[in-house]
Specification:
This protein is α/β, with parallel strands linked by helices. It is 39% helix and 15% strand. Helix 1 packs across helix 7 and helix 4 packs parallel to helix 5.
């Protein structure tokens, strides 16, 4: 008997933003679990610099999630999809107070997530598939230098809940994972400040920052039969940062 904590045979996942640190960890884990994966990055350079582990069953393609036509064409080229993971995202500390930058961050993080969900809706309905959106602890806990990022991730949470209700009749489950402080290239410069690094670590229950692999496990679970009654939920992976 197949375990509900495994992925079905022939499982295919599209990981949008799979060239990023968290996206690569998710893509690599799906492959470890026997799935095939199509990961995306903003361009070929991002893909070449990624931590994706080359292997049979893993492919990577450039995709700009702000380009309607490109997203629709990408979805048409991948009709057999069991899971869509949205983890393409950007932030721009301090510059997000500029209107153009604010709009750009929302277009990538929030509208981009909506674009891919809409583009893959038909394919996911045919396979009774799952969507997992990568939100953030900053959907709950705001930071003063990234207003657009915080707003976009709060939007991702509510978009997740709305789509879960809207698409349940199609058999599509829609959930989100909200990472806390995870060691990625996006915060590498800030982590050089040892006082800042230790202050964050000490706030968590485990007294450490998270790793991208810590997020990947929660995403995989939300795509497994074991989570078949879960939809519209947000799983926090923050080491207990917000528990105190």
């Amino acid at each position: 008997m197949t375990s509900p904590f495994s992925l079905p045979s022939g499982f295919h996942a599209a990981v949008i933003g799979g060239a990023g640190d968290i996206g690569a960890a998710i893509s690599n884990l799906f492959c470890d679990l026997g799935a095939s994966v199509t990961a995306t990055g903003i361009d070929d350079d991002a893909i070449s610099r990624s931590k994706l582990r080359p292997r049979t069953g893993l492919s990577a393609e450039p995709l700009d999630v702000t380009d309607d036509g490109a997203v629709e064409a990408f979805a048409r080229g991948h009709e057999n999809v069991d899971a869509l993971v949205n983890c393409a995202g950007i932030l721009a500390r301090d510059k997000e107070f500029e209107i153009a930058t604010f709009i750009k961050v929302l277009d990538v993080n929030l509208t981009g997530t909506f674009r891919t969900c809409m583009a893959f809706r038909g394919a996911l309905a045919r396979r009774k598939g799952a969507i997992v959106n990568i939100a953030s602890m900053n959907a709950t806990l705001a930071l003063p230098r990234i207003p657009a990022y915080c707003a976009s991730k709060g939007g991702v949470v509510m978009l997740t809940k709305a789509l879960a209700l809207a698409w349940a009749a199609d058999g599509i489950r829609v959930n989100a994972v909200a990472p806390g402080y995870i060691e990625t290239s996006i915060n590498e410069t800030g982590r050089q400040d040892q006082l800042h690094y230790n202050r964050i670590a000490d706030r968590t229950a485990f007294k450490r920052w998270g790793q991208p692999e810590d997020v990947a496990g929660a995403v995989a679970f939300l795509c497994m039969p074991a989570s078949s009654y879960a939809t519209g939920t947000v799983v926090a992976v923050d080491g207990g940062f917000l528990a105190g």
